[in-house]
Amino acid sequence: MKQRYVAAAWLTAMMFAGCSSHLLFVEEDHLGLKAKFQPNDPSPVELSVGYHRGVIAIVPQQSEFPSGLTNQVTVTRTDGTNTMVITYDPDELMSLYTVFRANVGWMDPIETHHFLVTGTAAASLLANEDSLRNIVTNLQGFADNKGQ
Amino acid sequence: MIMNRIHIAFLSVVVSLLTSCAYRGAIYSEYSQCALDIRASAQDANGPVKVNFGYDRAVLAYIPKRNSSTNSSRGEAVSVVSWNNTSTTWVPPSLPSAALSNALAMITNSVVGPIYSNKLVKASEIKDVIRVDAGFISGTAANIATVPSGYNVVVRSDSSSTNVFQVTTSGDRLALASVGVYGKAIGSKNVEINQMIDDIVNRVSVDGVVDGMEFGTLLKPVDGMGDDTKQRLVRQLDGKQASMLTQRLSTDLRDYVKKIHNQL
Q1: What are the sequence ranges of the domains in chain A?
Q2: The pTM is what?
């Protein structure tokens, strides 16, 4: 809940400032049971069971001033092959790629994974299918999964 | 909670008006909730009683235009990709039968000898309780990740430059980005299933392309899937990149992976 107030505060501040160069992204999840009693107090004042997540991202555009670039993406077709040419656009947001995965099994260990990459590294990683596959095989998080 | 959202939405409208709506980008808000939310405060009566039961979600995105100098009717939003898949099995379906089998095995084997010889059900045979898969991609990286499957990608450092930043092979990047990363590292069962997916893909692909006839042969004896569906799948995947088959087997065909693997 606090996160929502924080988000609302950011939103208000950014709108008042006429800010049109930053992305604000807020996400909040919750899965099972929250509690908070008080009057005459039959115990829990806050209790939370199972999965909670919160994200706030503020991502600026690459350039402070508009570049006027209009065609960031063009498609060409040669010899039956479609090629998409993507040009770095200063009006675009800075690149950010993040993944969060969690797995809670019944009588299995709890496993969480988080991966974050930004900037050119993010762009080049996503551009290259083989690089993504290398992430799959080489960035194994747990000892008993290594080499699989 | 709903009231809070109404207040926040109302506040946003007021702020928009006060700022003469100088902001020309998009604002996206989402909220979902399922099941039981009790909260009391008939003008307080000494404070909070808040209970909340099961799934609650909120998203807020404030998305600027690529070029803020264009007027409100023109100009595309900057690029963002976001996903969140949450699934849960409140009581794993195999748990009651597993508990019963285990109890029978233990009781009969210990009291009257090994009559009920059913081996103990392994934890790995019981379904996951909670799975979360979420991610976020922004900017040029998002543009690149969403290039359609089968397209080559060329990334240039700027519009006038002939310097090619990178040229890559074609493939379904978004599927890999959202499903593939760490897919093999989560849970022993998933390692097993991903290995099966690799086996299937290796069997039916030639030079990185799906051989529809071979895939059709594997699909044919699989039960629980109609013939029309099988034929449609073969038509969809024949001649496509093997990564597309990997993606389908990892997502909507995941329940059939074991059955297909049994045909190898």
Answers
A1: 1-60, 62-87, 95-142
A2: 0.61
